[in-house]
Give the backbone structure.
Amino acid sequence: MNNTKIRIKNNWTYEQAYKIYSKPFNDLIYEAQSIHRKCFKKNKVQLSTLLSVKTGSCPEDCSYCPQSAHHNTGLQKEKLISIEKVKQAAIIAKNSGSTRFCLGAAWRSPTDKDLDQVCKMIEEVSNLGLETCVTLGMLKDYQAKKLAESGLDYYNHNIDTSENYYSKIISTRTFQDRVKTIENVRKANLKVCCGGILGMGESKKDRISMLITLANLSKHPESVPINKLIKIPGTPLEKAKELEELELIKIIALARILMPKSYIRLSAGRTEMTDSTQALAFLAGANSIFQGDVLLTANNPGKEKDTNLLNKLGITSEKLSIEKNA
Ligand code: SAM
Ligand code: DTB
Ligand code: SF4
């Protein structure tokens, strides 16, 4: 890597991305880590905490998801929880070092009444000085605006896989529906958190294409969660072919190179990853994780394991900015 300035590009071609992905592994990782160090503080990770505020009975049929009403996963369902419960969980998250608190709801799209409640939750979390993120399914433009007015920082809405593979995974909505919501979120001046899942039987081409869609959005998502499929018994993907660990690392490196200034979050699936795999993911440019014992409904490594890992790697967590904490 020479000392050239980092250029943000939104017109990546498949051939360009494939050429980067196909470099010798060491060259790929070296390039990703070099870019990483020009755009971010080295050896730092951003910590987020998730909370499921409405669990299960989702009308969508996403093949990976334990919360879909189409699959029988034995999940304990729960209606929209109280604002007080959200506040308590956010305080715990803040005390354990998270800078962002993310609320997830198993909806196709929120009703206006639901949205009003979520707006109140956002105000409470924001008052604690935490960054806020919500993921509520598809949004109309006026709903995105309403969320922005309540002080929301980020909206999470994943494209999950390539445009080509999308219909193999979900039949109740289209890839274009997903992109439309992301556009509505951008128009409302919210920050975008958008990524996908690896290990759903997709090809290398699908994985690279998914990253190209993200990198060619009018503005790169500020956060890009890369989830490794958690194979939930009772979902159609419970027996999906295991993703090769090096494939996860190469895709993270490619994400870092295509979207140099975005946070790349090593998201779901860390309970099944060794320390070495996670270390490689950080080397490849991942700089964010979800902490805590659970994600939305599935297991996550938990504070003690993560503290041990980060200590071993000499990685420290980002602190809340003074501005947000004021
Ligand atoms: N209902 C909203 C939606 O789909 O946008 C928000 C909640 S949904 C659970 C958020 C994201 O979690 C999905 O887009 C998917 O990327 C991820 N996810 C769900 N189940 C997963 C699994 N079994 N393994 C990995 N990621 C998963
Ligand atoms: C994202 O990309 N991953 C998170 C968050 N965004 C909402 C969710 C992972 C969910 C894993 C399955 C579960 O906990 O139910
Ligand atoms: Fe519903 Fe979201 Fe799960 Fe799909 S991923 S079934 S939309 S909760």
Notes: Residues 58, 60, 62, 65, 67-68, 106, 137 surround iron/sulfur cluster (ligand 3) (CB under 6 Å). Residues 112-127 form the longest helix (16 residues). The longest strand covers residues 44-54. The chain has one domain: 27-319.
